[in-house]
Amino acid sequence: MKPILTGEIVLEVPFHDVDAMGVTWHGHYVKYLEIARTAMMRKVGLDWQQMKDWGVIWPVVTCNLKYIRPLKYGQSVRVQCSLLEYEQRIRIRYLLSDALTGERVHRAETIQLAVDTATGELLFECPRVLAQALEGVLS
């Protein structure tokens, strides 16, 4: 499936993310996904606060993680993300790799659903403002 939008960040694993063996605690990988996802969406002018101001939030409802190799303190990691769907849900695929060697260390996929901030109800189609922003990228 060809991605609608892609993004990439490079970060260094900080000391406060690792355990006594210098290995990244598994929960921090989700934070790295969030940082990459935010950077990708900002490329098209979309930000969490902006969408909240429009009356829509996007909670993650599914998060699949595949740990391939451990990330270690000081390691430089490239986090690539690809937006695969946005019409009824946001589906993003991620690949984490060592920024120096290219070795794969982690794969993931998240699904987010639109929720009306006023009612707390699920929205079963993409809010028009998001669709317009993404359609601008596609044209």
TrEMBL record:
Keyword Hydrolase: yes
Protein's name according to its UniProt entry: 4-hydroxybenzoyl-CoA thioesterase
Keywords from the named record: Hydrolase
Listed Pfam families: 4HBT_2
Protein family: Belongs to the 4-hydroxybenzoyl-CoA thioesterase family.
GO MF annotations, alphabetized: fatty acyl-CoA hydrolase activity
